[in-house]
């Protein structure tokens, strides 16, 4: 099959590379000339484990190509995937569909022969149908079908998620489009990956419902963590105690500073907006959004309290800036909600992140951070150490060394990656989430 992938971000580049790994001929298109130049040069513009080797292998096999010229890619394609960004619109939280419709119009002008145009971007219910109208208007009678194929990959594990997904969801309107989608995903069919065929609208809504549900688990466990702190219970034991119930499941029950990244915050907001507009408000998701927004301030309070109620003039060593490990993505990261408030209160912040510092440095809200070369570099003379992202390399710090470097041994672990008993034994004042503070 010939595939054109419009947008080479976290989703487009991974999906394009994986489709080429399936054996399809893939052309990835991006408007960003810099990004395409880098890709042509063998450089990967984002950090995603395993992606460089995957791209290199498929470029060498002549199955994966990059261009800025959409007209080069679309006419030959059996399927054109739209994988451009759908960020939150300022003010109302709705998904901004400018990039999607711009791409649709450009595609319309380049279609040649029967093509399936697939929205892989996360788009509110009804968008596929509007894309179809837009293309009908702009193409003057091209032969095409529309499909919806939301993506569920997680940054940091994107290739594994794409190659071995829990399921693939395809929204189609007829058998012809279904056949094209089936052919594209044939290697996964052979692996017996469940493929859910649905209507366009259902497929679009499945993506929001999935993210809404996962975000609900996170806000739920975060509120339970607060309750544990108030009554002297332990959230880790609680999560285990409920998670072993197969109906609940143990995943996504990790308390912390709240969800972030480029999907959950914007998708929950967009779901709230769609639901309100449809006259069916989703009260659970509304609460989930609110709880998550309040979470950042609660984490700030926790850090300040651990610093005896005042961070003015104090030095905080901060480990981890990205919204989760194994990515360089800083979009809506908890660090962006927490650190500016601490800077405002007069804290000096010495930060380190293995992959996120270049992106962090572009974010004005974080101006004033001092970026360090290693985890231990942040700790020299620090009054407290704050773990915001649970990168593996932060899980086994040499606690004696940490203690020697710091002015005083205080750790605020917003990811619960240490055990209170060990930390007490190592001589630390240790504050975590949903567990008793020690000593
Ligand atoms: P991104 O911002 O990383 O990448 C989007 C890319 O599209 C950019 O490189 C941009 O230059 C390019 N682009 C925009 N308009 C274009 C056009 N007309 N022609 C060519 N290129 C164009 O976005 P992303 O994180 O990959 O997300 C893409 C979509 O996938 C979003 O709807 C998102 O919600 C969804 N999604 C993301 C993830 C994730 O983990 N990032 C997971 C599942 C779904």
UniProtKB/TrEMBL annotation:
It comes from Oceanibacterium hippocampi. Belongs to the UDP-glucose/GDP-mannose dehydrogenase family. This is UDP-glucose 6-dehydrogenase. It catalyses: UDP-alpha-D-glucose + 2 NAD(+) + H2O = UDP-alpha-D-glucuronate + 2 NADH + 3 H(+). Substrate binds at residues 152-155, 207, 252-256, 260, 324. Pathway: Nucleotide-sugar biosynthesis; UDP-alpha-D-glucuronate biosynthesis; UDP-alpha-D-glucuronate from UDP-alpha-D-glucose: step 1/1. NCBIfam families: NDP-sugDHase (TIGR03026). GO terms for biological process: polysaccharide biosynthetic process; UDP-glucuronate biosynthetic process. PANTHER family: UDP-GLUCOSE 6-DEHYDROGENASE TUAD. GO terms for molecular function: NAD binding; UDP-glucose 6-dehydrogenase activity. It comes from the Bacteria. Transmembrane segments: none annotated.
